[in-house]
């Protein structure tokens, strides 16, 4: 038995399809949208459609942009000799928040995952190889997540890029700032020991 009118049920179903949104959260979001004044609801719907129509991938780094080069690739202040390879556009935002990295990026839009039927051809790997082949790149930083798929992707790309004579590095692992050793797992402690440096 349906508790709500069909259009409201449909709205709840659409919200429930979003990642991380369960049934109750979807219901809350749907009721919130219904409570909005018509102008705000229209602005919300327009924002979704506008983003869907205009947001594309940068032709160089494959990050999201509103057409043409992304601001990072267009900036003459960025170091073009270093490329940080990430799996997702959200990872670029994380690096940019730190304000420590001044190179450029390459977004793969996923990682190699045989279990999810994602192979190298499904990712933005060819465009990365093409960029490195041009000869201006000196270092490629693998910044995929330290899980099985991220490691496999980093290793695959490393083998692919080695013939070009570029330095291929991997992000360091270890104990997070503010973390406690007693809560670190064995793999994290091992990586932290392997990656130790002089002070």
Give me the Rg, rounded. Answer: 21 Å
Number of strands: 6
Helix content: 40-55%
Query: Widest sheet: strand order?
Result: 4-3-5-6
Distance between the termini: 67 Å
Number of helices: 8
**Portion in beta strands:** 5-15%
| Biggest sheet features | 4 strands, parallel
CATH architectural grouping of the domain at 78-173 and 182-199: 3-Layer(aba) Sandwich
CATH class of the domain at 78-173 and 182-199: Alpha Beta
Which class of secondary structure composition applies to the elements? alpha/beta
pLDDT < 50 runs, ≥5 residues: none
Q: Give the CATH topology of the domain at 78-173 and 182-199.
A: Dna Topoisomerase Vi A Subunit, Chain: A, domain 2
Please state the average pLDDT score. Answer: 89
Envelope shape: globular
What would you say this structure looks like, in words?
A hairpin with a 6-residue loop joins strand 1 and strand 2 (64-65). The chain is an alpha/beta fold. The strands form 2 sheets. The chain has a 4-stranded parallel beta sheet with strand order 4-3-5-6. Strands 1-2 form a two-stranded antiparallel ribbon. Helices cover 43% and strands 13% of the residues. It has a domain at 78-173 and 182-199: 3-Layer(aba) Sandwich (Dna Topoisomerase Vi A Subunit, Chain: A, domain 2).
């Amino acid at each position: 038995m349906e508790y709500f009118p069909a259009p409201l049920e449909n709205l709840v179903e659409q919200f429930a399809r979003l990642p991380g949104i369960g049934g109750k959260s979807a219901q809350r979001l749907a009721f919130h949208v219904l409570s909005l004044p018509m102008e705000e609801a229209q602005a919300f719907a327009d924002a979704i459609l506008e983003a869907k129509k205009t947001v594309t991938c940068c032709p160089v780094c494959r990050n999201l942009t509103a057409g043409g080069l992304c601001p990072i690739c267009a900036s003459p202040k960025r170091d073009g000799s270093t490329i940080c390879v990430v799996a997702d556009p959200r990872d670029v935002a994380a690096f940019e928040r730190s304000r420590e990295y001044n190179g450029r990026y390459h977004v793969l839009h996923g990682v190699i995952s045989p279990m999810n039927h994602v192979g190298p051809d499904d990712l933005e790997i060819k465009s990365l190889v093409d960029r490195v082949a041009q000869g201006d790149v000196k270092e490629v930083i693998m910044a995929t997540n330290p899980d099985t798929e991220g490691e496999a992707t980093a290793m695959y790309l490393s083998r692919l890029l080695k013939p070009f004579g570029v330095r291929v590095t991997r992000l360091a692992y270890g104990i997070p700032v503010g973390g406690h050793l007693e809560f670190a797992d064995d793999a994290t402690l091992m990586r932290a020991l392997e990656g130790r440096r002089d002070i």
